[in-house]
Each structure stands twice: as C-alpha cells, then as structure tokens.
Amino acid sequence: MRKKLLYLLLFSISISYAQPDDLKVGLVLSGGGAKGIAHVGALKVIEESGVRIDYIGGSSMGAVVGALYAAGYSANQIENLFLQSDLNLLIKDQYPRRAMSFTEKEDRERYAITLPFDHFQIKFPSALSRGQDVYNLLVQLLHDVHTVKDFDNLPIPFFCTATDIETGELVVLDEGFLPLAVNASSALPTLFSPVAIGDKLFIDGGVADNYPLAHMQAQKVDFIIGVDVQSGLIQKNELQSAADIMLQISGFESAAQMKEKKAATDLYIHPDVSDYNLLSFEAKDVLVQIGQKEASRHLKDLASIAELQTSKNSNPPKTKSIAQTLKIDRVAMPKLIHFGRNYLNGKLRIKTPTTISYEKFQRGLTNLAATNNFKSFRYQLDTTPSGTVLDLNLEEVPNDVFLKIGVHYDDLFLSSALINLTWKHGLFKNDELSFDMIFGDNVRYQFDYYIDKGLYWSIGLHSRLNQFSNDIQHPLSSLPTLSSGVIMRHWVQENEFLLGTLFREAFRLNIGVAHQRIVQWTNLIESNTNDFLFLDDSDYYSLKGNLSLDTRDHLHYPTQGGHFYGSVQSYLYKKSARFEDLSEPFLVAQADMSITKPLASKLFFTFGALGGFTVKEPQNNSFRFLLGGYGNRFVLNHKSFLGYAPHSLSGNSFVQANFNLDYNFHKKHHVFAKANFARVGEDIYANKEWLPPADYSGFALGYGLDSLFGPLELTWSYSPEVKRRMVYVNVGWWF
C-alpha cells in the first residue's frame, strides 16, 4: 500500500511538473547519537540513485552529517571521515599531554580526582566533555564555507535545530557560524556541555524535536525524504546511561508524534539500529552498512524521484580537499576577569597576521582549553574588511576553589593519602595557590604559589617537606661507620623562589634562589653525647637554574616523545648548630633525558640516560648521589636503580643508562621489561671512569595497569652483582 501511494504521488507530481518547473527535494535527518552514522550509508544510496537534494535539515548527529553534505562533501568522503576518526577518543576531550604546561602536567599526574569546592560545597561537572575536540574538527572540515553566514547560500541550503535550555523551546539555526550551529544542535545532554550562541544557551535539538519535519515542510520543496534512526522508546534494561534516560524522557511525546510525521514524509527510510545505543561509536562501520542496506530497499523509488527532476545535479558532491592552513589577520579577545591578553597569547602562540597550519592552530587552542580555566571555549572565524578575525568566545570557570584527592603506596614512602586545596585568582590575575597535605606512614606537605604571565617571566614560590626512613642493607663506602641493618631517617624541607619562562616555545627555563633544611640521623647512639648519631642538621642557601622539555604523551607508559631535565645548583651558605659552617661554596649539576619510539603497534622502546656530579663536595654526605629502589619522586639527589634497595649505591658522581620495553597488550594493561646500568663513584668524570663497562646493573620484569589513580605496578628485579631478587610495589601517582 505504501508503494502504491508513493507512485500515485509521483504520478501527480510528474503531471504538475510537465512545465519548465523542477521537482525540489528536501532531506530530513533525525538525531540519534552514534546511531546517526547510519545516515551516511543512506546518503550513499540517495547520491548513487541520482536524486538531487535541494535542502537539508537535521538534528543532533543528523545535523553533523547534513552540514558536511550541504558543505559539499560526498557521501563516500563523509564515510571515510567517520571511519578514519577515533570517535570515542574525540568526544572525551582527553587533551594530549604535550598541550599542557609543566604545572598542568604535574597536576594531572598527581591527583586522581578533582572537584569544584566553592563555599565548602563539592560540585560536580555538568557534562563529561566540553566537546572541544569535536568543535575543532568541525571548524577545519567546514573551513571553506566559513564566510557563509546565511545557510541558504551553502552549496545545498541547510538548517539544523537546537533546544533552548532555559525555555525548552525548539530553535531553528539557519544562519551564523556553521560549525557553532552544528555544535549546538549536537550537544547531547550529560555527554557534552551546553553551547552558547549570543545570549542563549543550547543543548541537543533532539530534546525538543528529534525529527525536524515541520520546518522542512515550510521550505519551498515539493518532496521530502526522511531518514529516521530513532528506535522508539527504550526498554528499561537498556537504559544504561544518563543520556539514555534524558532522551527517553524527551521521547515520550516524540514517540506519539512520529506516527504523524512518518505519514507526512513522502519517502520514509528507517534503518533498524535498535541493537545499538547513543554511544555505539565503535560500531560505526556496521551502522553505515545498516543505513546503506535499508536505503537500498527504496532504490526504485529514489530512481523514480531522480527521473522527475528535470534539472540534473550539474555539480554533485565529490571528494574535496580538507583545509590544512588558515589565514588569521587579527585575534579578538574578550575582556576576562582573571586572564589578560598576555596569558591568552602565551597559550595560543599565534602572532598575527599569519598563515598558520590547522595542526599548529588547533595545538594552540588545545593549550588554552587544557588549562581547564574556561567553562566554555568557542571561537569563530569572521571575515572583515581588514581581514580574517579569530573571535574568541570564552567563559571563565566560575569556581575558584578545588578539592583534589590522591592515594599512593611505594616501598620508600609507604602508604600515603593526599588531600589538596587549590585556590585560583586569590591575589592576582592568573595566579594559583595549591596546598597538599599528605597523611600516612610519613606525613608530608607541598605548597605552591604560581603566577602565570604567559609570554613574560612567570613567578613561582614553592615549599615542601619530605620525610622517610630506610634500612641500610649494604655498607656505604661514603659512610664506613654505618653497617648493614642501621636505620637512617631523612627530614628535608625545601623552599624556592623561581622565575620561569618558555624558551623556544617548548623548553621551560627556571632561575631562582632556594633554601633547604636537611636533617639526617640514625638509630645509633653516640657515646659522648648519648644522642642519636646525626649525619646532617643544617640550613643550606643556594642559587639554582634548570631547563626542562617534556613531549612524552604519557609519564609512565609513553608511546612517543621524550624529555630532558638539566639543573645546576650553587650552594653559597650553610648554617648549622651541630656542624661547622660551609668552608667554601660547592655546586651540584645533573641531567636526565629519555626518548621513546614505537617498535610495533603496541610495543614501545624507551632509552634514557642520566648523570650528575658535585664540585667541591662538602664533608657531610647529604648531597651525594644515592642510587637504588624503584620510584619516580625522589628527594635531593636520590635516584631510582632497579635490582638494588634504596640508597644502596653512593658517590659524588654517577652515570646511568636505562632501557625499557613496554607491551600494551590490552587497553590500559602493560607488561614491561627493564634494564639499567650505572657507574657510581668518586670524581668519575674527572678520572674518565664514566665509560662502559658498567659497575652495576639491574634487570626487571613487571605488570602495570594505567588506572584512574595512576599506575598500579608489580615489578620483579634482579641484580647479578648482589645476586638478590627484589619485588617493588607501586600504587597510584607519585607525590
């Protein structure tokens, strides 16, 4: 019966269009999250049938697919765009590590949970993602039509719908900046943050109307094809996410309306995607096939429609190049309360006028978005008589206070629980005050105050206390009075005032002054004082400088990139009640570097080298290099060295090579093999004793899980010199 009605309609149309007039066809694409990928398969069949689409309207994912087609992409090219993109990664806004500043990297690799904490109330984010990566991609893909403000002037006229979050009303978006309109139409509640356009805030158009037929009927089209990927109301056992529940609620009225809308659609194509949900992006290839298969059932009807179009499509969609560069003549920045132009320029790193690659452009945008200082971050490209203007639309995060939590266990600091309070914009613009209180077997703290001045010299004030104890399992050549089994206690407080700036855009240069309060003692009793044997109890004052670079994509399990850290610290003054004052200044210099290369799709190799030396070493041993143990956050000049207990090897100079083979065998699960070799001793560089072969070596096998709380690792190690097997346990980020 359906086909008979269709052919009758086509016959009547053919009579009325026997004159020079032409049959204009409108295409309506429904929303449906990941299920909307089936639209691409349907579009392939419609395009192959020869039907000329004269108007496109869509909601949510239908808006995304429709906008790309309206902008001139072919159905095959849209399919390739979806299949070649990691959609799950794209929607999560997991900013790459390289986009973060050094302080932001430290925050990410220190705290497991971060929550807004204003007025002593914990607040939760409104959505899982801000949709920044999706928006950046839309801007690039739609670059060649960015000057089109009236969507009727696109290669194919287009509209999309969104929902006003304040009133719940359906709003038709048919003018403005196309990527922004599409972004608002597809802002799925709880998954993506609402999108601001002007003074209004929008969410997914599917909330108000997931099949925008009415507005298409109001256009000058004669025949409407609809592709609907809705699956009706969801069964209770299939309501697996907040987004599912939201759409179920909004679907109560929509389900009743769809009967009328289906009847009012001249050709209704309904792919069966009921086995998939809003987030089934991993099934993108199957969803395309489902849409293609269902549309193919209507191929004869589509061919009949194409025959009735007297004016054939002289410029059918075809594969077109994706913009790789853009020209920016000026950046228009909003007036913000806490962040000035220098800060924004320092993150964007765009000097206008310029022609910049999209890769570098998006990297600068990601640098800014990754600060998490902005609740919403959108931008437009506006064409003016003076050139192309990048118009930034930023809304600052309303929260100034954050509560952060972390947990950790290792063989040196033992169990630790961290509670952090971070206060932004407390005294000046761009400043941040952070205080860690660490409880557990060794109570510690860390205080940081930082003023980020972008391209200019930034200011940092740091204070930290570390304390721990360790058994001396092997006699130290530098401490012949201490035998095996002695317990050594360390109490180190460090205070620094630093100035920092970016060097060649990638290196971080810090210079400043430092104070260190170092107390080290043992469980041995001195006969002449009847007190514990102290090795140091002094205040040291120094000048310091360091240069760092970090392009690794992950701190513990990198797949590419490398790092460099070099420092020089000149100690000028010492004050102590127990020991003699410093007879002359001394210096400590050290460097640490690594590089990671992929050997196969899941196999990665990292080579690292580090070394250091002291000049005019003081009589006490506080600044000697101590190697041993397995760790990431060490105090003073203590270094990790597999196969040995902490502080087993000692010298005023050392050189070390590390080799790591990491196999990421399943998602976040890793197995690794490590080896390290070292020379440690007295003045090894001056005596040319730093060359191979090594005096000490260690080998290890281990398993690691990259969890929410950081790496969970169990590592077995062995050293052929001491012929002793050791097991290291690490839980969570190091702090």
Question: Could you give a quick summary of the protein structure above?
Answer:
The protein has 14 helices and 34 strands.
Give the number of helices. Answer: 14
Q: Round the Cα radius of gyration to an integer and report it.
A: 32 Å
Largest sheet: 18 strands, antiparallel
Structural class: alpha+beta
Give the helix proportion (percent range).
Answer: 10-25%
Low-confidence runs of at least 5 consecutive residues: 1-8, 10-20
Overall number of strands: 34
Quote the distance from N terminus to C terminus: 71 Å
Shape: elongated
Mean of residue pLDDT?
87
Strand content: 35-45%
Quick tags:
735 residues, 18-stranded antiparallel beta sheet, eight-stranded mixed beta sheet, 20% helix, disordered N terminus
Describe the fold and architecture.
With 735 residues, this protein is an alpha+beta fold. Helices cover 20% and strands 40% of the residues. The chain is built from 14 helices and 34 strands. Helix 2 runs parallel beside helix 11. The N terminus is likely disordered.
Helix and strand layout, with pairings?
Layout: H1 2-16, E1 25-29, H2 38-48, E2 55-59, H3 61-70, H4 75-83, H5 87-92, H6 102-108, E3 113-118, E4 121-122, H7 132-141, E5 158-164, E6 170-173, H8 178-185, E7 195-197, E8 200-204, H9 213-217, E9 223-227, H10 242-264, E10 267-269, H11 284-296, H12 299-307, E11 325-328, E12 330-332, H13 341-348, E13 354-357, H14 358-369, E14 374-384, E15 387-396, E16 401-410, E17 414-424, E18 431-440, E19 444-451, E20 458-472, E21 486-503, E22 507-526, E23 531-550, E24 561-576, E25 586-598, E26 603-615, E27 625-627, E28 638-639, E29 649-651, E30 653-666, E31 669-681, E32 696-707, E33 710-719, E34 724-731
Parallel strand pairs: 1-2, 1-9, 2-5, 9-10, 12-15, 27-28
Antiparallel strand pairs: 3-4, 3-16, 5-6, 5-8, 7-8, 11-13, 14-15, 16-17, 17-18, 18-19, 19-20, 20-21, 21-22, 22-23, 23-24, 24-25, 25-26, 26-30, 27-29, 30-31, 31-32, 32-33, 33-34
Helix pairs in contact: 2-4, 2-11, 3-8, 7-8, 7-14
